[in-house]
Amino acid sequence: MTKQSAVNGRHQQRRPQSTPARRPQRDPVRVLAFEALRAVDERDAYANLVLPGLLRAAERAAADQGRSFDRRDAALATELVYGTLRNQGTYDAVIAACVDRPLREVDPPVLDVLSLGAHQLLATRIPPHAAVSASVDLARVVLGEGRARFVNAVLRKVAAHDLDGWLERVAPSYEDDAEGHLAVVHSHPRWIVSALWDALGGGRSGVEDLLAADNARPEVTLVARPGRATAADVAASVPDGATEPGRWSPYAVRLSEGGDPAAVPAVAEGRAGVQDEGSQLVAAALAAVPVEGRDELWLDGCAGPGGKAALLAGLAAGRGARLVAVEKQPHRARLVGRALAGNPGPYQVVVADGTRPLWAPGSFDRVLVDVPCTGLGALRRRPEARWRRRAEDVRGFGPLQRALLGEAVAAARVGGVVGYATCSPHLAETREVVEDVLARTPGLELLDARPFLPGVPDLGPGPAVQLWPHLHGTDAMFLALLRRTS
Question: What CATH number has the domain spanning 220-274?
Answer without folding.
Answer: 3.30.70
